[in-house]
């Protein structure tokens, strides 16, 4: 690859951000809302604000690179598919922030807290409007595919991919909440299944399938290996997020560490921490779990326990192991697809684990 991976990611990000802004600029004229409604344009503005705050747009990158597995020629339908995957992501952000009662997201207010500020005396209205805003983002993610200028069969196949991805994500969110109600920390198979369903299937698998469909390939013929690649990338990505929540640099991340500890979440890090400590150390960890009043000093003490007991080292080792397994899956694509694009997918897992932000 002549272009460095971070540079390629940044190029896709810049182009897509301009496309996303243009989409929202015209959405008000294409959405069938009554002229008297003030809440509808307000909802669209909140969705626009949240959607355009950024992220590396890795779903968009994976989508375009999946098409490049087949051809280096321009491919119709990728813009519509990119809008679809990011609108589905916006839906997920709106609902995740509601479930978690989060006040901020990417340096700005969450949709839920924005509505709470608008309607301080009407909490049920704020709740209802937040749910509806997320639902609207989901509907728009499907509509943008239905409106795409593509053959009917391709449009239908893309809608089916996104509908399945959305349903899988909802189940993933349900079992994610269920996981934290268990008396004991879950084993890795449970954690892997949560990561796969809640994140990997819509963030990795769906973009892969959409990109292949747009390029004229039939992803169903390669379903098993695409699913395995997506699952492994999702696992090491979730491990990285869980690792950073306790062992990360707050200044670099722009948010406090210890959220999973304070909320009592049975993350990969928490499960490994509980398995590694005993006696007084275990009592310190268990006392902090689910206690939102734990101070940064208390979290730092748990971090020190985790480092001393080898939890941080084990997490880094496990992340790299799963990233290597994903790389090997992609390596197996070389006889079938374009070498340069395959090389990209070989590099993505380890880069995703090692990147700073």
TrEMBL record:
Q: Which GO terms describe its biological process?
A: isoprenoid biosynthetic process
Q: Which residues form a coiled coil?
A: none
> Which cofactors does this gene product need?
Mg(2+)
The Gene Ontology terms for molecular function here are: metal ion binding; prenyltransferase activity
**Keyword Magnesium applies:** yes
Keywords on record: Isoprene biosynthesis, Magnesium, Metal-binding, Transferase
Determine if Transferase is one of this entry's keywords. yes
Question: Which InterPro entries has this protein been placed in?
Answer: Isoprenoid_synthase_dom_sf, Polyprenyl_synt, Polyprenyl_synt_CS
Source domain of life is Bacteria
Family statement drawn from the similarity comment of this UniProt entry: Belongs to the FPP/GGPP synthase family.
Q: What is this protein called?
A: Polyprenyl synthetase
